[in-house]
Amino acid sequence: QVQLVESGGGLVQPGGSLRLSCAASGISFSIIAMGWYRQAPGQQRELVARISNGGLTNYADSVKGRFTISRDNAKNMVFLQMNSLKPEDTAVYYCNRAPPYNGWGQGTQVTVSS
């Protein structure tokens, strides 16, 4: 049974930073690509960062140069370092396989506001 648990969200001022964490279980973590997704109110969920099982990364244009995805295969965890945050980054952030499994975790809320 796949279980994905996201944490690390919160309220931050524009220009600030947050580090999100995701703990995965019930999957062959080290052999799959993982991604961070986000969903803002009234919008579709979108993939913002992806990391292959070998560590190759890809980013959405909107976060390139500001966000960094990483993974720890020994701990079955994936991280998202978010710097220079903007109000438009406000969303619920989720981790999942890339492409995603059908099930999702509860996500973690990120709010960027002064």
How would you describe the overall organization of this protein?
With 114 residues, the chain is mostly beta strands. The chain has no helices and 10 strands. The chain has strands at 3-7, 10-12, 18-25, 34-39, 46-51, 57-59, 67-72, 77-82, 91-97, 108-112. It has a 6-stranded mixed β-sheet, with no helix packed on it. The protein has a 4-stranded antiparallel β-sheet with strand order 1-3-8-7, with no helix packed on it. Strand 5 and strand 6 form a beta hairpin.
Briefly, what is this?
This protein has 114 residues and is mostly beta strands. It is built from no helices and ten strands.
Largest sheet: 6 strands, mixed
Overall average pLDDT: 96
Percentage beta strand: over 45%
Tell me, briefly, the overall form. Answer: globular
How would you describe the oligomerization state of the chains in this entry?
single chain
End-to-end distance: 40 Å
Unreliable sequence segments: none
Whole-angstrom Rg: 13 Å
Strand order of the largest sheet: 2-10-9-4-5-6
- Strand segment tally: 10
**What is the overall number of helices?**
0
- Taken in chain order, the helices and strands follow as EEEEEEEEEE
The helicity comes to: under 10%
Assign the structural class, choosing from mainly alpha, mainly beta, alpha/beta, alpha+beta, or little secondary structure: mainly beta
What's the arrangement of secondary structure elements?
Layout: E1 3-7, E2 10-12, E3 18-25, E4 34-39, E5 46-51, E6 57-59, E7 67-72, E8 77-82, E9 91-97, E10 108-112
Parallel strand pairs: 2-10
Antiparallel strand pairs: 1-3, 3-8, 4-5, 4-9, 5-6, 7-8, 9-10
